[in-house]
Amino acid sequence: MIALFYRDMRLAVRAGGGFGLGLAFFLLIAVLVPLGVGPEGTTLAKIAPGILWVGALLSCLLSLDRIFALDYEDGSLDLLLTAPMPLEGVVAIKAFAHWTVTGLPLTLAAPVLAILLNLPAEGFFWLVVSLALGTPALSVIGAFGAALTVGLKRGGLLLSLLVLPLYVPTLIFGAEVVKRGATGAETLTPLVLLAGITAGAAAFLPFASAAAIRINLR
Amino acid sequence: MELRVSSVSIARGGIPLLEGVSFVLRAGGCLVLRGANGIGKTTLLRTIAGLQPALGGDISVGGDAIAYAAHADGLKSTLTVAENLAFWAAVYGTGAVDQALARMNLSELRDRQAANLSAGQKRRLGLARLLVTGRALWVLDEPTVSLDKASVALFAGVVRDHLKAGGAALIATHIDLGLDEAEVLELEPFRAKRNARGSGAFDSAFGGDFA
Fold first, then answer.
1. Coil, strand or helix at B168
2. Is B42 an interface residue toward A (CB < 8 Å)?
3. Whole-number mean pLDDT of chain B?
């Protein structure tokens, strides 16, 4: 299992692996939005939590179809299925590897980009906390969508349509944590709900994803 | 190790292909499946490997014994030859990477990226994976595609050694591997009758056994 994680990480950082793709996209959004909205500090501060969370979500979405599609195309998904590893574990590890490559760098880079959007200083801590708690859910839910569409040619559009509605609760509660944190309000309720979504998704979706892959590979 | 297949029926995309396939493969044995294109060799092998459920019949293998090699080699083009093989060795919990590379005549290429291998070299690397699985029963789908004569002979030698060591091999192939001890199973007599769609012909998504 650890070997699979190392392999996925190695593939991600090698040429064409897509490491940094999500991060670059996130950077573009954070740079372009202030240019489009205008330099007024109060407006930017008001929309910053939402923009940062939408940016993180779209950046995650960008690399989802690679989670299983590449392994499907070169035949290694078939071989992983016959390997002495539970497929549920394979799915969980691959989702975790996806998070390490996209969600984790986004979380670490978010405070720097929050400066561009004039997020109040009180919100920085909550931005990092909410992204750290919420982005794993994005990867796990995304892996489920990727499992449903594995084997479809150009399944990326369908994948986005399937996954986006499932992302909405994470987005709402994640942005709410930052919004409340930035104004000094109490953040516990959205934070707990955000953590609950992540925990629930991580517990159940690997099983659903594994079942979807087994059916798709027949 | 014993693979026992008794009156198995298989289907692809809801259409029955073969029915009543029965054979027993014991340790040290090699069975070659033959039949025209599309008769269901690949589907039969995938069914035995556990990738899809059989329509009917019974397949029993003694424990975790199967190493499956499909048409695609499952290589990662940005990893080197040794890295590709080391991954599978780690998955199966063995460490015989260097011996496997030497056996398939790949030692000189060990640090080359898989993207820069020829088709035949990729195939040899894909077959070297079998050696690091440590599994007794090799289920091979057209293993000699894109191999030259010398490599086919090399691979036949590897299979022969595997059989001598108490392994077994189930191979779908069109060419003669030069394995004298191999038995041949013609699949033509097992071809499913047309329009003989039974109630089990439709592959229900959740009815299968997720083994």
1. strand
2. no
3. 86
